[in-house]
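Pilot study result, target chain (407 residues):
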Amino acid sequence: MKKGNAGKIILGIMFGIIVVLSAILAMLTIRNKKAQNAVAAIQEVQTADSEENAREEKKTEAEKILETMTLEEKAAQIFFVTPEDITGVNTATVAGDATRQALETYPVGGIVYFSKNILEPEQIRSMLENTWNYSQEVMKIPVWLGVDEEGGQVARVAENPMFQVSRYESMRSIGDTKDPDQAYQAGETIAAYLKDLGFNMDFAPDADVITNPQNTVIGDRSFGTDPALVGEMTADAVAGFQDQGISACIKHFPGHGQTEGDTHEGYAYTEKTLEEMKNSDLIPFQEGIKAGTDFVMVSHISAPNALSQDLPASLSSEIITDLLRGEMGYEGIIITDAMNMGAIAENYDSAQAAVMSFQAGADMILMPEDFQAAYQGILQAVSSGTISEERLNQSVVRILETKLEKF
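Predicted structure:
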């Protein structure tokens, strides 16, 4: 074979190899792109799934419960009422089918019990246990079972001789010891017997500072006249209650100790300016907040020298939203004082008062004079847009989160 022909043959072979290799490379490139596209698609799906999972994880358990609730169930959660309010009986001393049916219709956030409901240990223990079980069965949400058990003159359980529990002369007598540990022990002791009976919430301790010696509404329910000492006592009492699993509620914000008049009967007011309150009355509340109180109760007192509008504190956004929630940084549950008191009931109808209080920033409405009217008032306000459902959701989530943390 001639050298020239041999060279041509070699070049041809080499060219063929190059063509084949190019074709193989092209095929590999195409396959690689497909593989890359497939991987990218998988990664995109995984990323989307991951983001969705992250979003779900960010949703608290309370928010997930909220998504399953009807508007009516949400509205009911913001009410803390007596057993008579939902059952329609004159005096409730047992919890049976009527209570179960009432909770199905009105899954309220809390129920408060008074002396007439508390006859003897086994009776109230059975009543509370049944109510708790019904709340779990029909509401799927725990219910607060509350009582006014401050110790001293306000003690629905200890005032009854059928109960063998520790009794206290007054909170003032504890304050006079100037030993905050005494307040802790009182809170712990009261909470222990309440928990044994089945309660899980107490409208105590009283955080008022007595600066008006003529004040008989609070009197010796307060730890004393020194804001700093009352603050220490309040914080330790809150810890005593909540260390035993009983939610505490400090009251009566922004301070009932200087007031003239009785909100149970009608108009009551303080002449203090906001600055004066900050230097005295608000100190124990700030200490109670630092101690982690689950509730703050807002009173019906008026403070005309501190606010731009002469409204009861329980209806004032300046008191609830601007001061308590804003300046003082409270993130827990804000509940009104009983809305059937004269300061509210004599001047506002139940629906109007409930809506005004909720608009002002309260999370829970305690004992409206007419529960049905107040409940319907909230529903109508949300339906009409007067109260946004987002605003309602904020309070319901706060209520649910606190319950889930406790129970």
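One observation from the pilot: The longest strand covers residues 249-253. A full batch analysis is planned for the follow-on phase.
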